[in-house]
Write a structure and sequence with these properties.
The protein has four helices and five strands, in the order βααβββαβα. The chain is of the alpha+beta class. The chain has a single domain, classed as Aminopeptidase. One of its GO terms (molecular function) is acyltransferase activity, transferring groups other than amino-acyl groups.
Length: 141
């Protein structure tokens, strides 16, 4: 049975599994191996949600927020073997419910290719006139 819940204090095994998920998604290079990084990410998130199947984490997601004005969904993913089962929908629903309970109603995200249909189910739409941007490994001038 698949369960979805907030994760605040992951075990060593859970941290290693999450590291593997970040690597598999190509969000982090394989050289990133410090499991304590997962603790820092969870502490720095407004909330962090995980999905488990038979005791193993198979999906994750989190919200970044100042806790007052707005929030961003981040790192929403489910391992390939468990996709198309509604798990990501459950993760997103749990995060959005928490944000709404905390009074946060402006919620943004940048979805990867193929993900917009999931987010549209929750009322997300393209933000007209906005351009998603990022900065990666660029030294300050």
């Amino acid at each position: 049975m698949i369960t979805v819940d907030f994760l605040t204090h992951p075990t060593s095994e859970e941290k290693n599994r999450i590291l593997g998920i970040y690597h598999h998604q190509n969000w982090w290079p394989e050289s990133v191996t410090d499991p304590d990084r997962i603790d820092r990410i969870i502490r720095g998130s407004h909330c962090y949600v995980a999905a488990w199947d038979d005791g193993h984490i198979i999906g994750i997601g989190r919200a970044l927020s100042d806790g007052v004005g707005d929030a961003y969904l981040h790192d929403i993913t489910v391992v390939e073997s468990h996709r198309l089962r509604g798990i990501a929908r459950r993760i997103v629903h749990m995060i959005l419910t928490r944000l709404e309970q905390d009074g946060i109603t402006w919620i943004g995200l940048i979805g990867e290719n193929g993900s917009p249909p999931l987010y549209r189910k929750f009322g997300f739409a393209a933000l007209e006139g906005a351009v998603p941007m990022y900065r990666f490994d660029t030294p300050c001038a």
